Amino acid sequence: MFTQVTKGIKVSVQTTFEGTFFKNYKMHYAFGYTISIENQSQDTVQLTARHWDIFDALKDLETIDGEGVIGRKPVIKPGKSHTYSSGCLLASPIGAMRGHYQMVNFTTSEEFEVDVPTFKFSAPFAVN
């Protein structure tokens, strides 16, 4: 598990290998990840946007920006958490993701970024 805390917001990530498949005459490697966002601060916050950099062993980079996570903009009260699962496709059996969430503190109206730790993907057959 990969974990990081920014301004009282703890982000934990667990990854899984989902399998391989061919698409457009090319092998793809499917990975899943589950992210838990725990509010360890004293203020209620809302996740409003996300930014991802996705890398694979072939040095391909994909950047994704968007609103919320999986169609939601969760409000997280102090001591509570929000957990969601998603996934990505890579062109190689090894890769990684990193990024950040854009958050709003409801008490101060401050917008701030919460770092997501770099988390790695590896198919079991690709790791020695």
UniProtKB/TrEMBL annotation:
GO terms under biological process: error-free translesion synthesis
Residue ranges of domain ApaG in the record: 3-128
Entries under Gene3D superfamilies matching the protein: ApaG domain (2.60.40.1470)
Pfam families, alphabetized: DUF525
Name assigned to this protein: Co2+/Mg2+ efflux protein ApaG
Native organism taxonomy: Bacteria, Pseudomonadati, Bacteroidota, Flavobacteriia, Flavobacteriales
Gene: apaG
